[in-house]
Amino acid sequence: MVDDQEPEGNPPGSRFAAMKIPAYRRLWWGGIFIFLASQTQQVARGWLAYELTESNSALGGVIFGFGVSLLIATPFSGVVADRFPKRRIMILAQGVMGLAALGIALAVATDVIEYWMLVAASVVQGSGMSMLGPSRLAMTADLVERHALTNAIFLSNASVQATRVFGPVVAGLLIAVEPVGIGGVYFLGSALALMSVISAAGLPPGNPRGSSGRTPFGDMADGISYVRKRPELTRLLTIGVLVVMFGFPHVTFLPGLIQDIYELDAWALGVLTGSAAIGAVSSSLFLANVATKRLTTLQFQAGVTFAVWLAVFAAVPNYWAGVVIMIAVGGASSAYQAMNNSQALVIADVEYHGRVQSLLMLAFSGFGLMALPMGLLADAAGIRETMVLMAVLVGICVLLGEAWRRRQAQPDIPDL
Predict the structure, then answer these.
(1) Of the candidates 158, 108, 399, 411, the residue with the CA atom closest to the CA atom of residue 286
(2) 18-203+216-407, superfamily in CATH?
(3) pLDDT digit string (tens) for 56-70?
(4) Of the candidates 396, 395, 399, which has an alpha carbon nearest to the alpha carbon of residue 310?
C-alpha cells in the first residue's frame, strides 16, 4: 500500500485483481498449505477425541484449549505484528503448528496417544494461529493497494474456504484407509505446514512502519483506545465476536452428530464439512468484487441467513438434506466473517492493522471458550437442541448489531 488517494469502488472485472501481484500470489498459496493442514487436522482431532472419550464435552474441551490459547496470545500477537517483520512471525507461527501436528502423528503411530495430548496440541496450535492471523492479514494490506484490499481479503477467504472443501473430505477418506488412518492425516498436516513455511520465506520482510516508542503493553492499550474512538469499528468488533462465539461452535459437534444421530462413519463428516466449505468458497468468490459501500447491508443479510439456516440444519432429520442445507450455512457464515474483516481493515489506519486484526481474532477465542459449555449442554439436552439455541443467539446478535448501526449518526466506513 503506497497511496492514500484511491479510486472509488473496485474497478470493473476485478474479481481476481489481487492475484496479479506476485507476492500476494505467494501469500495466497502459503495460506492454502497451512489452512489445508489445519482443516485436515480438525477432522482427525474431532474424530480421535470422540473415539477416545465418546463425549461431546470432550470435543468441546479440545476446542476450549484452542480458545484459551487464543484469548491469552491474540492481544499480544497484534502488537507483535505491528512491531516486527511479518514474514518472520509467519514462519515462526507456521513452524510451531507443524511441529505440534508432527508430535500427535508420532504419538498415534507409536500407540501412546491420550486425550490430554490432543488438548495440549490444540493449545500450541491455537497459539500459532493467534500469531499467524494478524501478521498474515497485515501482510495482505502491505502487498495490495487500499482500493483492492476488499478484493484481496475475499480471495484469501476463498482460499481458506477451499481448504475446507478438500481438507475434510481428504481427511475423512484417509481416516477410513487402515494403513493411513488418523496418524497419516497428522503426518500430512505437518508436511503441509512445512510447505507453508517455505512459501512464506519468499515473501517481502513486511517491516513495521516506524516505531511508536511505547512498550508492548502501551501499544496494546493504544490499539484498544484507537478502536473505542471509532464507533463503527467498535460495533463491527463487538458484534463480530458475539456472532462467531455463539454460532461457529456448531462445527465442533458435527462428529457427535454423525456418529450418534446419523450413525455414519468418518466419510460422512468429511462430506458434511466439505459442503459447508463449498458454500463458503462460492460466497467469497461472488463477493470478491463487491463495492465497499454495499458491505454493511450484505453483512446484515448474511448474518440473518446464517441464523435461519443453522436452525433448519439442526432440525432436519435426513443426512443428505443436512448436507445441502450446510452449503447455505457455510456460505452465510463465511460471508459474514469476511465482510466484517474487510470493513474493519478499510476503516483502520495501516499502522493499526495488526492490532485490529488481533481484536477480530478474539472472536475465535470466544468460539473456543464457548465450545465447552455448549458441549456440556449438548450432552445434557441434545445436539439438535443446542444448535437451535446457537441459531437463536446468532439471530439476536445480528439484529442488535443492525439496531446499533442505525443509531449511529455517521458511519466510519469510507466509500472506496
Answers:
(1) 158
(2) MFS general substrate transporter like domains (1.20.1250.20)
(3) 677 677 777 777 777
(4) 395
